[in-house]
Amino acid sequence: MAIDKFVTVESSCVPLPIENVDTDQIIPARFLKATTKEGFGDNLFRDWRYDKAGNPKEDFVLNQSTYSGEILVAGKNFGSGSSREHAAWAVYGYGFKVVVSSFFADIFKNNALNNGLLPVQVSDAFLDKLFVEIEKDPKTIVKVDLENETISIPSENVSEKFEINAYKKECLINGYDDIDYLISIKDKIEAWEKENAK
Amino acid sequence: MAGKTLFDKIWDSHVVDNVEGGPSVLYIDRHFIHEVTSPQAFAGMNERGVKARRPEKTVATADHNIPTIDQHLPIQEELSRFQVNKLKENAEEHGIELYGLNHPYNGIVHVIGPELGITQPNMTIVCGDSHTSTHGAFGTIAFGIGTSEVEMVLTTQCLMQSRPKTMRINIEGELKEGVVSKDIILYIISQISTSGATGYFVEYAGSAIRSLSMEARMTICNMSIEMGARGGLIAPDETTFEYVKGREFAPTGEEWEKKLAEWKKLPSDPDAVFDKELTYKAEDIEPMITYGTNPGMGVGITQNVPTLDSIESSSQNSFKKSLEYMDYNPGDAMIGKKVDYVFVGSCTNGRIEDLRMFTDFVKGKKKADNVEVWIVPGSKQVEKQAEDEGLVKILEDAGFVMRQPGCSACLAMNEDKIPEGKYAVSTSNRNFEGRQGPGARTMLASPLTAAAAALTGVVTDPRTLL
Question: Which has the closest alpha carbon to B180: B215, B229, B224, B150?
Fold first, then answer.
């Protein structure tokens, strides 16, 4: 099972200027009863998005047509909490290809990368700039170039390099997943097991 | 060359391969699975037409999605029933041992591993659950993984992981009366924040840590994830060996002696260097309680909710949002705050010592009328032991009822949900918005602090009732 190939993203953004967005907000526990990977996008930020009766909350950004796009811009420490990969499925399933923040929780970052969702970590200053520009013009286009490891706001002529592990970058660009790699080194694993029989 | 840390020793001895400029391939000794994070992994394997590679190194349990009463009856909720049955099907198909509902070894995954002696020093242990860090208390590299990684481990018994940095947190001195291991970890997180250890694997050390029992150490390692750490571990010592010896799946005879010799070599070398080192005094720690919506938003119980000006300006919006959700104000005292529910349980504090702590505290007294209390043992073995020790009788006399094992109200996937707007003092590990039910308001605390609240109906310093 490979992942979707990541191609350069040029899109408007959805701003979520909230810090410490945790996995219980991204996808509440009651939606983890599913046994497949489908449909999680519908429940992304469920309890911030809909009230008890299931009506969209007007003040939540996903319910405002002003903002749209494939890039989610979030406050620092995005994805803290649970190891539930369902959180990454929800973000990706909704239609985001990139999440931008000044800080990511480890497990979420890993889960995102394993699903073709690119977490881009930027400086506090760049994150602020993004929020400011998006507020001024909700249709601001942001470009995320994985090959060149650069995120930019073309209209403002500003850009920043972001860090990405070389192996993960290769996987994202080519749509490889870790299982394919591990299966390819089956012999090494078997040899290690023999040598370290426990 | 500097000495190695405990983490280095375990990591290095489990590396199968290194990807140039990339992650290491780590061999996994024990893989725990449960009903919530495994179905899509098995589906992926079925698509590939492969079976679990090392079923004998895999242990399954049903814990997150099960009811904590009437477990002898079929699960009422359709999706839950389906998911729990799916695990049974998958375990059977792949030859994996399942301690399912009503099995004498059933329970919360991070409670049963250690109590069965499956968790042993020097292992790499993973599970599709972030509190897998619990097993680090035995001197293991144990951490939570996502469902894709569950599939990876089932398929190959290996995982690709970037090597984290190392941090040592020393707690020196002696804990004061009424202060227990839960307070230590809540204190640490309040000091360094929920992202303070992101990118690190933490080793807990120091005289206060050494003096703790295994169950108390598990409470601390359990919440390592709440400060962003990949995992947390404690060097094995006599306390560890005593605990493991004689357990169901612990090594015996010659094998035991061989393992013991191996385990004794694990502690960090005296000249080992950590990427970061912090030290705290045990005497500075009071019973803790959280007031906000992440585990770092906690204070000593006699202290007040922070004032706005004491919060960094970039974090003030989040702080205000959090207090709005809890309906608290900056500067509020925590003592005296209304309590509607008390939850005792979870992989953090659902073991026999936690139940003993709670029971001793309430013995001969009466539950407050205005509080609903859920006491949920961490496993069937803990439940049985509580009965055998007479704890259940003491609890009943005080007006408390013990339920059956499961994750229960910690994440409220089952029916044990705290209603909207209600306040719960909980011995679990997360107080995020809606964690214990939509609109639920959680205050994290130790079993002692929970017991005090259960007797008085308000947030109470347990030391005043000792």
Answer: B215
Q: Using the predicted structure, report yes or no on whether residue A58 has a pLDDT greater than 70.
A: yes
Map tokens 């609903």 to a residue. B372
Tokens matching residue A27: 């996808």
Q: Does A194 touch chain B (CB under 8 A)?
A: no
Q: By C-alpha distance, which of B261, B259, B14, B11 is closest to B119? A: B259
Tell me the count of A-B CB pairs closer than 8 A: 182
Cross-strand bridge partners of residue B167: B202, B276
B202-230 burial, b at 16+ Cβ within 10 Å, e below that, comes to bbbbbebbbebebbbbbbbbbbbbbbbbb
C-alpha radius of gyration, chain B, whole number: 21
DSSP line for B378-405: SBHHHHHHHHHTTHHHHHHHTT--B--S
What is the identity of the amino acid at B378? Answer: G
Select from B83, B132, B158 the Cβ nearest to the Cβ of A182.
Answer: B158
Query: Distance (Å, rounded) from C-alpha B74 to C-alpha B354?
Result: 29
pLDDT tens across B402-429, in order? 999 999 999 999 999 999 999 999 999 9
Pairwise CB contact (< 8 Å): B194 & A106: no
Q: How many other CB atoms are found less than 10 A from the CB of residue B284?
A: 13
B contacts of A84 (beta carbons < 8 Å): 36-37, 146
Q: Which residues in chain A have their CB less than 8 angstroms from residue B149's CB? A: 110, 114, 178
Give A77 to chain B, closest Cα distance, Å: 7
Q: What confidence score (pLDDT) does residue A3 get?
A: 84
Nearest-angstrom CA–CA distance, B130 and A135: 35
Q: Which residues of B29-60 are buried (b: 16+ CB within 10 A; e: fewer)?
A: bbbbbbbbbbbbbbbbbeeeebebbbbebbbb
Instruction: Please spell the DSSP secondary structure of A81-145, one letter per residue.
Output: S---THHHHHHHHHT-SEEEES-B-HHHHHHHHTTTPEEEE--HHHHHHHHHHHHH-TT--EEEE
Band (A197; pLDDT cuts 50, 70, 90) = confident
**Please, which residues 14-73 of chain A have a Cβ atom closer than 8 Å to chain B?**
17-20, 22, 24-25, 28-30, 32-37, 47, 52
**Residue B224 pLDDT > 80:** yes
Q: Which pair of tokens denotes residue A112?
A: 């995102």
Q: Is A137 on the interface with B (CB under 8 A)?
A: no
- Reported as a single tens digit per residue, the pLDDT across B144-198 is 999 999 999 999 999 999 999 999 999 999 999 999 999 999 999 999 999 999 9
Interchain CB contact of A84 with B (< 8 Å) = yes
User: Which stretches of B183-319 are assigned E, i.e. beta strand?
Assistant: 200-205, 231-233, 276-281, 288-290, 298-300
With beta carbons under 8 A apart, name residues in chain A contacting B294. 20, 22, 80
Strand intervals (E) in B206-358: 231-233, 276-281, 288-290, 298-300, 341-344
What element of type H or E holds B99? strand B97-99
Report how far residue A172's alpha carbon sits from residue B274's, in angstroms, rounded to the nearest whole number.
Answer: 32
Q: Does A105 touch chain B (CB under 8 A)?
A: yes
